[in-house]
Design goal:
This protein is mainly alpha-helical. The protein has one domain. Helix content is 69%, strand content 2%. Strands 1-2 form a two-stranded antiparallel sheet. It starts with a helix and ends with a strand.
Length: 169
């Protein structure tokens, strides 16, 4: 059982976390600001996931629209669970609603968002040296000469002494 979980964890890291981490490192290399790279990567991930979010929202709205009909079915068959289930299924079929359609996009979104978190955690906590970051990124990416600055220094335009440290924990 432990080998299976280890295999799944490594697969998740290779397929989801590592590509997100490398895109983050590439953005930091191009933009020169780690905070801006995080914001841009987050926006990119949310844009990529937007069609799934939209599908989930439409499904939720459709389910809310038929809730009065479902409530009527529960009133009509208060003690007969089988009749309730059959009538509810008939309503779903009549309106073309799949009750699982609201959850399925979430099963795709969660691993990607977890991979985004993991990639941030990798850079901020697990790879504090330039050598370890250069070993973790893809070989075709430019190598780093400095550790990404985890301070959001661009907030200093509001107050010259104010900054937010992303690595503080």
């Amino acid at each position: 059982m432990g080998q299976i979980l280890s295999f799944l964890g490594n697969g998740f890291f290779i397929l989801i976390t590592q590509p997100i981490f490398n895109v983050l490192m590439l953005l930091d290399h191009v933009l020169g600001d780690f905070g801006l790279s995080i914001i841009l990567l987050t926006v990119l991930v949310r844009l990529i996931l937007f069609p799934l979010t939209l599908k989930q929202l439409k499904s939720t709205k459709a389910m809310q629209a038929i809730q009065p009909l479902i409530a009527d079915v529960k009133k009509q068959y208060p003690k007969d669970q089988r009749a309730q289930l059959e009538a509810t299924q008939a309503i779903y079929k009549e309106y073309g609603i799949n009750p699982a359609a609201g959850c399925l996009p979430l099963f795709i979104q969660l691993p990607v968002l977890y991979g985004l978190f993991n990639s941030l955690n990798t850079v901020l906590r697990n790879h504090p040296t330039v050598a370890s970051i250069n070993n973790a990124i893809y070989s075709f990416l430019p190598h780093f000469t400095r550790v990404p600055d985890a301070n959001l220094n661009w907030f200093t335009f509001i107050n010259p002494h104010a900054f937010i440290n992303l690595g503080a924990g």
